[in-house]
């Protein structure tokens, strides 16, 4: 069985191209026996150690997808799979090369399973081989915040051994903080580690202070700096929350150090922790932070939770103020800009029907900008049905079209997609030829096909072209034609963007006929 299942995948002499084909076949096989696959991998640890990490990562993703869909947590405990799966996963992860990607997906399955046995293997693996990033660690432990019923004693205090891991420290504390807030524990799981927590808070505050003076102290390239910054901020936030929940006065000095940092989220968490200890400085700073869009929602939440929400300026609770805060928070995420915007302002709000919603909702367009001294960056994003900003610059579009391009981007349906020009079949090529002829007659020159857009039962061609000596991107279905200039623009609309504009116009006209 193992030879058949893992044929062409394991070992040092595997051809990567053939392995890719084999993985594709397995992914398409709806009858694939995942339990047999796990067993087969677990009994051949030496072959795992000698295998290509990329291939192993593909296997891990396949296993995770199948077991997550099947509901690993609902498999009866008395089945062979439930009894042995946690052991198989542990044996597999102990054998594979440390650089193997997607290991965290198998660990997440152990957390999702949630039995004492699976959690024991999970904690042991995290102590021995912690993940590479705090975001992976958060994904691993995330399922434990989404369901009750698992035994806290199977995780804490042993998981606290991972506080020494830079990637694990913040998620370990986040889970402990969650359990404390939900009343799942009588005492904070890390209360006995308070001296360590205070020391860590002082260290990370000092590290962030040095970064504020000299960002190069975190590294010489942007990716390294961003990773270290996001990791340090996550740890500072988790530590402030933890010591605040523990509530011992010995933490006040370190919290006062953290509250002086420029990072608004850290300031907010430090202020919240101090206010929880009935410290006047914490209360005062929280109220001040309601003026800061990136900290506003969290500061108001703390003020309400701690009993002085009536002191918050009512203007900071308006829908407009909340929309500005949502956009600032989104931009501050590590995978976005990573820092709060210099300025943020709602420019238009409408209540309308929107794709995927059954009732009208409030949709806000929010302008944001960053001032980098000699450079400026700005754009307009959306808040309401989703918080998002396109990479392309949409600020010069009419307001109606900004709503439309985001509606088109947000719409999801199996029958809405695009096909690249070099992937068209013969019938699709004939459609594109007809659309190009239409553009020629309409005065466009040098129309070059980029995409064919399929929108339910309609189609449209997306081209690069020239009109009135200006290079542009244009979409047409033979009846409606939309073009957008791209020459001389730093962040012009791409082919997919103009298709989003096209379908968004159609959808908003249909959903909101009186608008």
Question: Which features does this protein show?
Answer:
single chain; 3-stranded antiparallel β-sheet; alpha+beta; 515 residues; 5-stranded antiparallel β-sheet
Low-confidence stretches: none
Strand content: 5-15%
Radius of gyration: 27 Å
Strands ordered across the widest β-sheet: 4-5-6-7-8
- The count of DSSP E runs of length 2 or more, i.e. the number of strands, is 8
Helices, by number, come to 20
Q: SS-based structural class?
A: alpha+beta
General form: globular
Instruction: Give average pLDDT, whole number.
Output: 91
Helix content: 40-55%
Largest sheet: 5 strands, antiparallel
Distance between the termini: 63 Å
Order of helices and strands: HHHHHHHHHHHHHHHHHEEEHEHEEEEH
What can you see in these coordinates?
The structure is a single chain. With 515 residues, the chain is an alpha+beta fold. It has helices spanning 2-5, 16-28, 34-42, 45-49, 53-70, 80-95, 103-113, 116-128, 134-141, 169-181, 194-213, 222-246, 252-259, 264-276, 280-289, 293-305, 319-332, 399-410, 426-441, 495-511, and strands spanning 343-352, 361-371, 376-383, 416-420, 445-455, 458-467, 470-476, 481-485. Strands 4-5-6-7-8 form a five-stranded antiparallel sheet, with helices on both faces. It has a three-stranded antiparallel sheet with strand order 1-2-3, with helices on both faces. The longest helix has 25 residues, at 222-246. The protein is globular and about 75 Å long. The chain starts with a helix and ends with a helix.
